[in-house]
TrEMBL record:
Keywords: Cell membrane, Membrane, Signal, Transport. It is found in: Cell membrane. InterPro entries: ABC_Gly_betaine_transp_sub-bd (IPR007210). Residues 47-192, 211-312 form the ABC-type glycine betaine transport system substrate-binding domain. The keyword Signal applies. This is Glycine/betaine ABC transporter. The lineage of its organism: Bacteria, Bacillati, Bacillota, Bacilli, Bacillales. It comes from the Bacteria. Residues 1-22 form the signal peptide.
Length: 314
């Protein structure tokens, strides 16, 4: 073998050796520690906590789910040092849309019924072992004292009003898809579901222009229920006003008699603090919807199942 050929063989052998060594990478078989701890085990939950900057994205600060989230920050060791960014329902949806579009981690305060679960059906609730958010909830109808005597027919209609989660979500979903106002869709729903409406109206007599005020919240779910009941009361001859306010003001208005009724009391947990404060000053007509739920929600692509899987900000 010539000296030139010998040098070429040595050079080729050296290059192959370098390529083999480079291909081996680190001892645990990966060239990156993203998604792994120092032992080489996956640690996605820790990265999720860091990725969301130890922040839960929420809605209005006075909402019942926001109050529960503040309690969760106190109750869970996994949420020590975390913050809740309370803004508005529209703000939360905007943040959620952006995160899912880019497949980024996000942790939000979520609730059913809501159209977001129709738009993003794979979202999931994080398990809540401490029960801070409760289990399934009911939405109750509350009235001011004396409404039964002053407006017996309206009282009877309100007492007999009951529908399903699917009914409420169908209105919210259609409004979201069509771009029409929820109240407009609620009127259509009433016309298309007269069989249910007739059950609510059983034994209720028509009136001639009596005025009644429903106190609600600005949530889409409550816009749906108040829109439906408003339409039915108007069929009976009532002049109906719907006033959306903060939850605290809603309870106070019914207790003080400034408003006649509300269909928006989430119990036994979400609005319990307000209910306990005013329960002796209001009439409780019982549930108008069962199967509601609140909690912390994440997109399905986040490989995490429980609040306790998160990591404290230490």
């Amino acid at each position: 073998m010539s000296k030139v050929k010998g040098k070429m063989v040595i050079l080729v052998f050296g290059l192959l050796t370098l390529l083999i060594v480079a291909g081996c990478g680190s001892d645990n078989g990966t060239s990156s520690d993203v998604g792994s701890d120092t032992s080489g085990n996956e640690s996605n939950d820790m990265n999720y906590s860091e990725a969301v900057d130890y922040t839960i994205t929420g809605i209005e600060p006075g909402a019942g789910i926001s109050v529960s989230t503040e309690k969760a920050l106190e109750e869970y060791d996994s949420l020590k040092g975390w913050n809740a960014m309370f803004s508005s329902t529209a703000g939360l949806i905007s943040e959620l849309d952006t995160a899912i579009e880019n497949e980024e981690p996000i942790i939000i305060t979520g609730w059913n019924p809501h159209w977001m679960f129709a738009k993003y059906p794979d979202m999931k609730y994080l398990e809540d072992p401490k029960g801070v958010y409760g289990e399934t909830e009911m939405i109750k109808t509350l009235t001011r004292k004396g409404l039964k005597d002053d407006m017996p027919n309206a009282y009877k209609l309100l007492d007999q009003f009951h529908w399903e989660v699917e009914d409420m979500e169908s209105i919210m979903n259609e409004a979201q898809v069509s771009g029409e106002e929820i109240e407009t869709i609620a009127e259509k729903w009433v016309k298309e579901n007269q069989d249910k409406v007739e059950e609510w109206k059983e034994g209720v007599e028509e009136v001639d222009g009596e005025s009644i005020e429903l106190i609600s919240t600005p949530w889409d779910s409550e816009r749906a229920s108040s829109g439906v009941v408003k339409a039915v009361l108007e069929q009976l001859g009532y002049d109906v006003t719907v006033t959306p306010v903060d939850v605290a003001i809603m309870f106070e208005s019914i207790a003080n008699g400034d408003g006649d009724a509300t269909l928006a009391a989430w119990l036994p947990l979400t609005h319990n603090d307000f209910y306990e404060k005013y329960k002796d000053e209001i009439d409780d007509l019982g549930e108008n919807l069962n199967g509601a739920k609140i909690g912390l929600v994440v997109p399905a692509y986040m490989d995490i199942n429980s609040i306790e899987d998160l990591q404290p900000n230490e």
